[in-house]
Amino acid sequence: MFRKALSAGGPPPAGLSPDEKHAWDQLDDFYTNGLAYAQEMSNRPQTLYGIADSPVGLAAWMLDHDIRSYEMITRIFDGKTEGLTRDDVLDNITLYWLTNTGVSSARLYWDTARISTGGGFFDVRGVTIPVAVSVFPDEIYAAPKSWRRKPIPN
Q1: What is the Cα–Cα distance from 123 to 134, expressed in whole angstroms?
Q2: Tell me, what's the pLDDT at 95?
Q3: What is the largest CA-CA distance in the chain?
Q4: Confidence of residue 136 (pLDDT cuts 50, 70, 90)
Q5: Angle at the Cα of 115 (from 20 to 49), degrees rounded to 5?
Q6: Which residues contact 150 (CB under 8 A, 6 or more apart)?
Q7: Mean of the per-residue pLDDT values of the chain
Q8: CB 2 within 8 A of CB 27
Q9: Model's pTM, two decimal places?
Q10: pLDDT category, 4, cuts 50, 70, 90?
């Protein structure tokens, strides 16, 4: 919805509610600091073969692909008790390793870049069935209800 203004570094639109301003700030941070991960996977996922050859390479890729995720994951290694546990982190890496889906998980980014006719990474495309949307506090972007209802009216 606001992708063009965000990608151009524009200011937030006037009249945003507090929830909308928070979402704007989250998206601004993602487009400024976190988009490279998605761009790499959407442009050249086949070059990520190192994450299929080494469990350490896979772990490094998963643990340090963007600063927000890195901060959430490393909390437990810094002795904090909230959020993920060490087992949660290890389970996630192990699931990708045992199923050899590190590289194929980039397919979503590849497909999004190919079907997106000018749309952005978070843009809703062709949803016509009834859906529910959950928003969690540590998401990259907590879409406010006012933004969720426009593209998904049902």
Answers
A1: 16
A2: 95
A3: 50
A4: confident
A5: 100
A6: 1
A7: 79
A8: yes
A9: 0.65
A10: low
Token digits of residue 31:
């487009």
**pLDDT-based confidence at residue 7 (cuts at 50, 70, 90):** low
In the block, tokens 């049902």 appear at: 154
Q: Nearest CA to 45 among 124, 102, 114, 119?
A: 102
Rounded CA separation 141/15 (Å): 19
Q: DSSP secondary structure string, the chain?
A: --HHHHHTTPPPPTT--HHHHHHHHHHHHIIIIIHHHHHHHHH-GGGGTHHHH-HHHHHHHHHSSSHHHHHHHHTGGGT--SS--HHHHHHHHHHHHHHT-TTGGGHHHHHHHHH-SS--TT---S--S-------TTSS----HHHHHTT---
